[in-house]
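> run fold MATE family efflux transporter
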Amino acid sequence: MTQAPARPRAGRRQHDREIVALAVPAFGALVAEPLFLMTDTAIVGHLGTAQLAGLGVASALLMTSVSIFVFLAYATTAAVARRVGAGDLPAAIRQGMDGIWLALLLGAAVVAVALPTAPHLVDLFGTSDAAAPYAITYLRISVLGIPAMLVVLAATGILRGLQDTKTPLYVAIIGFVTNGALNAGLVYGAGLGIAGSAWGTVIAQCGMAAVYLAVVLRGARKHGASLRPDAAGIRASAQAGVPLLVRTLSLRAILMIATAVAARLGDADIAGHQIILSLWNLLAFALDAIAIAGQAIIGRYLGAGDTQGARAACRRMVEWGVAVGVVLGVLVILTRPAFLPLFTSDSAVKDAALPALVIVALSQPISGIVFVLDGVLMGAGDGPYLAWAMVLTLAVFTPVALLVPVLGGGLTALWATMTLMMTMRMLTLWLRSRSGRWIVTGATR
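> ok
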């Protein structure tokens, strides 16, 4: 396939404008997504403790089901961006449609498994007899929205690949507002209880998916792209997603091991760990926004055959990652005395978490490099290396983390181990970026 001529090399200011234009809306969309769960929690929380406990169990299962399929967004972004860089918009949209068809197939499979097994899944969490019926009700209704959620992931990847992060932001905001209104109306106005909350979220998710599909269909008609399912294209999308699935599962395993270790340290430590983990996830949104910009920008440069532009963009985004990491670290240091009282008044929890927060703050520049290079390599379609690097990181992290309860050091030692994990990721990603082996040009990798 003939490639589009390479663009002139962009200067630092142009890189900065591109990064900001893509990262800021992406950050807004990322922050809006967890607000769905927060809204459900706030509304259901007033129904009673058993209902809230049931929501907690069901939400954990749902979020795990969706998070393992996040590759639908990542792989689609990279593939579409390459086609955009090559100047082939019809093929870019066609590539994205393959991701949407894959999302529908995976969503249908999840529904088929989750509906009949919902009671058994809830029981695995040791859910109390009082909370279990609410968890089963919420899970069985909410799982109907998973196909829509996966379509949203794939369609978000299409728009990001098309260098559009504003539309996902607008859809996320509208979805959040709609979700809140529907939940309040169905839970209290219609008297449906926790089932109303589940139905409100499903309706909002289906509405978001419908908006995304309308945008994609309009683009397909404009550029004459086929909308029919293509077995070869769907299979290629799945194959591209497998390494990213391995990467995601390895990362989830690391977080689960860290939580299990914290639980062995004692109640104060596990409580402090959960607080710190919530902050860590919030900080990750800011850094992940730059990574999303990296996926879109790098994919476009490589699709255009502009290796120099890709290298320059990578360097500039790493600088952004370090700078944002430093700012976030300083903010954590300055606000930590005020941050902890928002979550607990227990002095033991505060004593455990306060020094660990210093470790988190100091590690933010490292996290900035990790997130950016992760996004760069995803944008390059370098999934197999990302999978191998994360499995290696898991292998190094696990024995060190399991030694924390034996050697002592409490929560501070555990988060020092988490920093070791991020440092390991940084080294593997940095070595790959320096090697240049991720630079493969063309409309497809």
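The chain has two domains: 21-229, 240-445.
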